[in-house]
Amino acid sequence: METAATDRAPARLRAMPSWLLTHVATHAGRLVGEAFAGMGARRYHYALLAALAEFGPSSQALLGRRCGIDRSDVVAAINELAGDGYVVRDPDPADRRRNVITITTAGARHLARADEVLARAQADLLAPLTEPERTELVRLLGLLHEAGGGAGAGVAQ
User: Fold this and answer.
1) Contact by Cβ (8 Å): 38, 44
2) Residue 4: pLDDT above 90?
3) Strand ranges inside the chain, DSSP E
4) Closest by alpha carbon to 23, among 115, 150, 31?
5) Quick check: helix, strand or coil at residue 40?
6) Measured distance CA(71)–CA(10) in Å, rounded
7) pLDDT of residue 151
8) Which of 112, 119, 91, 124 is nearest to 24 (CA)?
9) More confident residue, 30 or 97
10) Which of 38, 88, 109, 154 is 20 to 30 Å apart from 52, CA to CA?
11) 81-105: pLDDT as tens digits
């Protein structure tokens, strides 16, 4: 009969930070995806709304760069967000060929609900850790993220 110990990955793999990060990221992505799905949202929606809330109105291109989202995916996500009334798209007064995206009041409320859902998913992910360990993990991951290119290198997980 197989036991949990026989199902474990080889110690050689479990000692590799890249292997651990990959598998934890997969688990984190699943938790966040399920949490957002429960409220009819997606990671791209959250990232775009968060960028708009923090930085103010932006072009679609700048939003994509800030959030690490491909240009065509930004357009599709903005279309969805606009359809739900969470953002408005207006011509850029400085360049009519571009659009400026602005978060709406409804979008800010949706983002606040998503923040709550995401916080619960993060708490589930980090449940085995103490509060000081969580703080240290986030600090260390932040260092790795910055060393790897930093801003705009991905979507909310």
Assistant:
1) no
2) no
3) 58-59, 87-92, 95-103
4) 31
5) coil
6) 40
7) 57
8) 124
9) 30
10) 38
11) 999 999 999 998 888 888 899 999 9
Inter-residue contact 35 to 113 (CB < 8 Å): no
Burial class (CB in 10 A: 0-12, 13-18, 19+), 46: buried
Q: How far is CA 134 from CA 49, 51, 122, in A?
A: 25, 24, 10
Classify residue 126 by burial, with Cβ atoms within 10 Å: 0-12, 13-18, 19+.
middle
Q: Is-contact 51 66, C-beta < 8 A?
A: yes
Report all structural domains of the chain as residue ranges with CATH numbers, in order of start.
Answer: 39-116 (1.10.10.10)
- Tally helices (H) and strands (E) across the chain: 8, 3
Mean pLDDT of the chain: 90
Sorted by sequence, the CB contacts under 8 Å of residue 66 that are 6+ apart come out as: 51, 55, 58, 151, 152
Radius of gyration in angstroms for the set of CA atoms belonging to the chain, rounded to a whole number? 19
